[in-house]
Fold this sequence. Notes:
Elements: E1 8-10, E2 14-16, E3 27-35, E4 40-41, E5 44-59, E6 62-76, E7 83-97, E8 110-111, E9 116-118, H1 120-130, H2 166-179
Parallel strand pairs: 1-3, 7-8
Antiparallel strand pairs: 2-9, 3-5, 4-5, 5-6, 6-7
The protein binds zinc ion (2 copies).
One zinc ion binds next to loops.
Amino acid sequence: MVDQDGDARVHELSISVAEILGQPGAYRDLHISKPLPGVRTPLARVQNDLDAYLRAESVVEGVLVTGEVTAAAVLQCARCLKQLPSEVSVEVCELFYGAGHEPASDEDAYSITGVEIDLEPMMRDAVALALPLNPLCAADCKGLCARCGKDLNLKDCTCQEEEGDSRWAALDALRDRLAQ
Ligand SMILES: [Zn+2]
Ligand SMILES: [Zn+2]
């Protein structure tokens, strides 16, 4: 199947490179639209389909995959825990090594299996790395009250001056919010 851009639309993440293998300069353009569940960090997760516009180009060492991967994501503010719809977009440039070209020093290198390359690990890694580790709803988000757990962006509470071990209260508040 070919979409309006003339790219092959791919439904599997294992792509045949039989047509271009061993012909440096030859390439395949790919448009991949596929859910990739489970890509997440503690405060961010990918939703729906990943969209990838990639070019797989034959090079002497194997196949070079370049392009852009985009995904809808839901982030959670690290201070007030509000959910924030977002989008991540990441450029990829990865070499899939052909037989006999695998680098001895890099066990995590991607390689060609037979005449196929499996794009899934590359896409997972790229998107996971692009997810923010410390998302904030606003740079000046006031977060939650360490004692009562109220969202201080909405309303100040009265317990700020009170005594108490706020470290534990903060953890209790966080736990209560996460349990909802
Ligand atoms: Zn916030
Ligand atoms: Zn409070």
